């Protein structure tokens, strides 16, 4: 059974981001995860609902089958890349739960995801961002090929998040917004979340995912405190993570990522 005090804490944090905080999703035949803040169509199942006490489904149903929320926490690719995520978390000082949340929202755990603007891999790193951190093409591999390597991609995503935390200390909502829209956009709006529907939805979705992964982490099981993110007051719109070759490609942030 879930500890009721910890569950209430999580639900209060979810309520801070939305009075109807929810995550819907499904996994397609290629194994790519799709997440949305709304039930986009019949394929989407409710994974997490945090609008009232006791509605957060994170434990087995008791019938020998995992709950729908297992698609968030038990995806095979998430398990496969767990050691790389833990290594990057320790190296750059970024919470493991946040790395998982960003990966889920950015690529649906798909290492081959490519956005229309050219963001690549699990953490959807732009080649220009990779070059900023010193990753360059060589005679053996192009920059794009290097970014397809899960370890390289995860490390660069974590490093970028760490840099954003230095720019916006203790303001995780601005860090998440910057990862989507670029730090320049956040600064342009006087260190606030830009009024782009996609970016505001992205912050909402990543924050909800973050609380789910944080709650399931070993630290949470030992009663570690939740680090909250500020509410942005934005109306949620749908964000769907799709395979790169689908009819509707991965949505791109306004900054061109």
Q: What would you say this structure looks like, in words?
A:
InterPro entries: DUF4124, Lysozyme-like_dom_sf, Transglyc_AS, Transglycosylase_SLT_dom_1. With about 260 residues, the protein is mainly alpha-helical. It has one domain: Lysozyme (Orthogonal Bundle), CATH 1.10.530. The chain contains 12 helices and 3 strands, in the order αβββααααααααααα. A 3-stranded antiparallel sheet has the order 2-1-3. Helix 1 packs antiparallel against helix 11, helix 4 runs parallel beside helix 8 and helix 5 packs across helix 11. The longest helix is centred in the last third of the chain and has 19 residues. The termini are far apart. The N terminus is likely disordered.
Task: Summarize the SSE layout with pairings.
Elements: H1 4-17, E1 22-27, E2 33-36, E3 45-49, H2 70-73, H3 76-80, H4 82-92, H5 96-107, H6 127-132, H7 143-147, H8 150-167, H9 172-181, H10 183-188, H11 197-215, H12 218-221
Antiparallel strand pairs: 1-2, 1-3
Helix pairs in contact: 1-11, 4-8, 5-11, 8-9, 9-11
Write down the overall mean pLDDT: 76
Instruction: Please report the number of helical segments.
Output: 12
The major pleated sheet works out as: 3 strands, antiparallel
Shape: globular
For the secondary structure, the number of strands is 3
* CATH architecture level-2 label: Orthogonal Bundle
The portion of residues forming beta strands comes to: 5-15%
CATH topology: Lysozyme
- Runs in which pLDDT lies below 50 for 5 or more consecutive residues are 1-19, 51-61, 219-253
The separation of the N and C termini measures: 41 Å
Strand arrangement, largest sheet? 2-1-3
Domain module tally:
1
Question: Would you list the SSEs in sequence order as H and E?
Answer: HEEEHHHHHHHHHHH
Helicity, as a percent range:
40-55%
Secondary-structure class? mainly alpha
**Cα Rg:** 17 Å
GO molecular function: peptidoglycan lytic transglycosylase activity
Organism: Candidatus Dechloromonas phosphorivorans
InterPro entries: DUF4124, Lysozyme-like_dom_sf, Transglyc_AS, Transglycosylase_SLT_dom_1
Signal peptide: 1-21
């Amino acid at each position: 059974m879930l500890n009721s005090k910890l569950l209430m804490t999580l639900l209060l944090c979810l309520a801070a981001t939305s009075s109807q905080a929810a995550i819907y999703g499904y996994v397609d035949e290629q194994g790519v995860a799709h997440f949305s803040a709304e039930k986009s169509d019949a394929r989407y199942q409710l994974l997490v609902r945090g609008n009232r006490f006791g509605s957060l489904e994170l434990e087995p149903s008791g019938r020998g089958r995992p709950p729908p929320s297992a698609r968030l926490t038990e995806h095979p690719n998430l398990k496969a890349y767990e050691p790389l995520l833990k290594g990057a978390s320790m190296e750059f000082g970024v919470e493991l739960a946040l790395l998982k949340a960003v990966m889920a929202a950015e690529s649906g755990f798909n290492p081959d995801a490519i956005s229309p603007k050219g963001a690549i891999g699990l953490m959807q790193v732009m080649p220009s961002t990779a070059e900023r951190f010193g990753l360059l093409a060589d005679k053996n591999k192009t920059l794009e090929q290097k970014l397809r390597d899960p370890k390289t991609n995860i490390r660069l995503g974590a490093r970028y998040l760490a840099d954003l935390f230095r720019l916006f200390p203790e303001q995780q909502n601005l860090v998440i917004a910057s990862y989507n829209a670029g730090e320049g956009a956040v600064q342009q709006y006087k260190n606030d979340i830009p009024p782009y529907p996609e970016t505001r939805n992205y912050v909402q979705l990543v924050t909800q995912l973050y609380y789910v992964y944080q709650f399931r982490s070993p630290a949470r099981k030992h009663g570690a405190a939740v680090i909250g993110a500020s509410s942005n007051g934005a109306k949620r719109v749908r964000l769907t993570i799709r395979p790169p070759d689908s009819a509707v490609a991965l949505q791109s942030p306004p900054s061109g990522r």
